[in-house]
Amino acid sequence: MNRRLFPLTVAAAALALATGAFASAPAPAPAGTYKIDPAHSGAFFEVGHLGGVSRFMGRFRDMAGELVVDVPEKSRVKVEIKTDSVDSNHEGLDKHLKSPDFFSAVQFPVMSFTSTAVNLNPAGEGTLAGNLTMRGVTKPVTFKLRHVGTGKGMRGEQRVGYVATATVKRTDFGINYGAPAAATDDVDLRINIEAIKQ
After folding, report:
1. Which residue in 106, 119, 153, 187 has a CA-CA distance of 20 to 30 Å to 137?
2. Start-to-end CA span in the chain (Å)
3. Keywords on this record (predicted)?
4. Are 106 and 80 a contacting pair, CB within 8 Å?
């Protein structure tokens, strides 16, 4: 991971202080391994309903994974999401989303993302590239990445937060049901991560 996922160089820190350009940027995360805190993290999706009449959002309640904060070539992100945990706030729709028409949760119980490159500038904004696997199909996806903050938890543990967003086509992953008339092909993804240093 670049710059903001490991301590800033002295030169970059001095430049930021001298110019004041990054005064609002979060403090860099200390190097190490971080486990995702599922109670304070979430994976969300949003689509256009009925071909774009309105916007519809759902989430997955069961997410796990880890971040390794180090020099860029050693840093990485891995997230796993249980498809059976999909939550649309409607029981009948949840059942349909778990079916073979959509996530096929019995056959493909986990979707995952594994990073290949992370780039963040001193302001804590950049990209997160990697491979997204869903319904047994793996495709490269690049998320916009933002470092939200770094700080201590209630027990003094080191915590760090990030938000990653991207748009994918569901038909690329074999989710063809009702596209695009019932629900748009384009799906907006958002992953909110809060992780604890191990």
Report:
1. 119
2. 18
3. Signal
4. no
